[in-house]
Amino acid sequence: MNMGFYSKCLLCVGLVLSAVSGAVEPVWRADLPAALAQAGREDKHVLVDFTGSDWCSACIRLRRNILDSKEFMQWAGKQFVFVEVDIPQKPVLPAEQLAENKAVAEAYGVSGFPTIMVLNARGQVTGGFLGDVGQVDAAVAHLERALRVSAMFEQAEELSGEEKARVLMAAYRLFPGGKAFERHRDKLEADILKHDPDNATGMKDILEVRSQAVLFEAERESVSRFSAEYGQLIERQLAEALEPNRAGVLMAKCQYALGTARTVDDLEQAKKLLEQVIRLQNPDEAKETQAYLERFFADLPALLRMLEQNCP
């Protein structure tokens, strides 16, 4: 039997079955510039997997259970060119490739793994996610948002002034958080401000709130946590706090109240502070804080004894 002919037949059958089933085999490239060029030719985006393939357990799970799964690839294979930026601990890559991967991770602000980033063909970050999201549908939801952001970026290219700023603001609301996306969010914020001098989008307000929150946190960290000075600082911050920052300052006041509590009545006051926090939080945060309140304050005398043993 001609084994070469037989092998070719098997390959053809495999290709036909793959086409019939709609499955797309994942092909992970290591050359990001080449992948961006391919994405431009094929009208796709680039999905970059920043990973530690031989040491990061979450990376290994994400790749095995989601990124290389048939269910994911049947959707994602039509949308993306795939790139792996691997930072292994063992010398399994050529030194030149490893150095290039580290340079790409640094260029995109990635230091934690796994990080999934979506890039348009120009190399602009449009979204992604951090960590092992657990399920295919969760990963797809993140990536669909990234594609929506990309479409908004394209739309904004045709606009100017306040119209451009509003479209970019809509993209900003979908843009992921987390350290790896921080510099890309910063750039997006700067672009919005540039085209919105009258603050029609409210971006100036958002940045003012954030700036105050960072300042307040730094002030609290500079003072001994259970000192009288700390208590005075908290009261000043409450008087000055912008509304979105009040919950954070009240939480700090609650923690101070717990740390300085001497009676059950003191604990009742701390509980009331936490109840105020809950009223200021969004529904998801409030639900979590309420569960904590019910558990932590269930037995106030026992709580007081525990605090007396553990707090100065």
What do these coordinates show?
This protein is an alpha/beta fold and 312 residues long. The chain folds into 2 domains: 139 residues, Glutaredoxin (3-Layer(aba) Sandwich), CATH 3.40.30; 97 residues. The chain contains 14 helices and 5 strands. It has a 5-stranded mixed sheet. Helix 6 runs antiparallel to helix 7, helix 10 packs antiparallel against helix 11 and helix 12 packs antiparallel against helix 13. The longest helix has 22 residues. It starts with a helix and ends with a helix.
Write the layout of secondary structure elements.
Blueprint: H1 3-21, E1 28-29, H2 32-42, E2 45-51, H3 57-67, H4 70-76, E3 80-86, H5 95-107, E4 115-119, E5 125-130, H6 136-157, H7 161-174, H8 182-194, H9 203-221, H10 228-240, H11 246-259, H12 264-280, H13 283-296, H14 300-310
Helix pairs in contact: 6-7, 7-8, 10-11, 11-12, 12-13
